[in-house]
TrEMBL record:
It is found in: Secreted. It comes from Mesorhabditis belari. GO terms for cellular component: extracellular region. InterPro entries: ADAMTS/ADAMTS-like, ADAMTS_ADAMTS-like, TSP1_rpt, TSP1_rpt_sf. The lineage of its organism: Eukaryota, Metazoa, Ecdysozoa, Nematoda, Chromadorea. This is Uncharacterized protein. Keywords: Disulfide bond, Repeat, Secreted, Signal. SUPFAM superfamilies: TSP-1 type 1 repeat. Disulfide bonds join C31-C61, C35-C66, C46-C51.
Amino acid sequence: MRFLLLVTCVFQFEARADVLGWAGWSPWTPCSKTCGGGVSQQLRRCLDVKCSGISVRFRVCNAKECDKPSRTARETVCGGETILSKQQCEVVCRSTSSGAKFIWRVGDGTPCQGTTHRSVCANGACQAVGCDDVVGSTLRLDACGVCGGQGDTCEAAHFDWKDSGEYTPCAKDCEEAARLAQLDGGTFDAQYQITVFVCVNTQSGRVVPERMCADREKPKIQRKECPLLVCPSRWLASDWSECVPTCGSGLRQRTVYCVQQQENHSINVLDKYCLAEKKPPSSESCVSKSCGTWDPGAWTSCSVSCGTGTRSRTVNCVGGTDCDKLKKPQVRQACYAGIPCNVIPPQALTMGDEN
């Protein structure tokens, strides 16, 4: 009887696995970082020929800031100079020896740059993080502060901004000033401290996400000057673009950054930190190869001896290969033979009279 029961259980499990397609999720892996925000992942195996859904999922872990963050996650990717990238989960590195540029993917768990919601990079893509810390989760805190709740576990809550009594930090040295300057997409001004306001539930005093105070006017921030830091900064320019247009006089452009040089890399900062030096031009006039000109030939005779026909000519580009196609002269046009086709020529009438 026990043997038969065991066989029945195994058969039922295999049949159910075949229907579902997926095996169960593995345990969460250890966190990729001990502080500063890392990720843990789970894997599952497809038991069928084809499975619908994902085979790996992530969650955020150890999000508490490190005690002494010296370099950001993006800075540690490059061994040379770090340049901000427009892509949220990529960083552009420039070799300090050859000047060559390389694009690298930031590590999983690195906060996405330039986003207003909580999101991290995972598998090279910026993904939202739910209140359950699972990457890709759509769960959000409800009005009662419950993750995934329906807002029915508390009385109607009221939210407002509150001065936390704290200020944004001042940089202790030039390296930290450069790191702070990268916050908020490179617009953070490390020369000042500003007041930090938090959104709170006015009944419980609990801090809630800032979106809960979206309909409340945020108090005016207060600023305090930080101790003056004189940090070595310089202008850095990208390569010139091609001359536009491609022949004759035109314009070429490039991007000019203000960077602060660190031990073995440099970081983009606000332009005002480089104002001691004149900013290199971001555009200049240029002259490419000579433009060609159109050389029209003579018109052929009209294609008919009476009425309306056509005539043509050759038009060649000389003195170059880049002639403006919009200015090319006509190669074919209508023409009139001089007499309508329903009129007998005078010479034909004369010949008839003689006969």
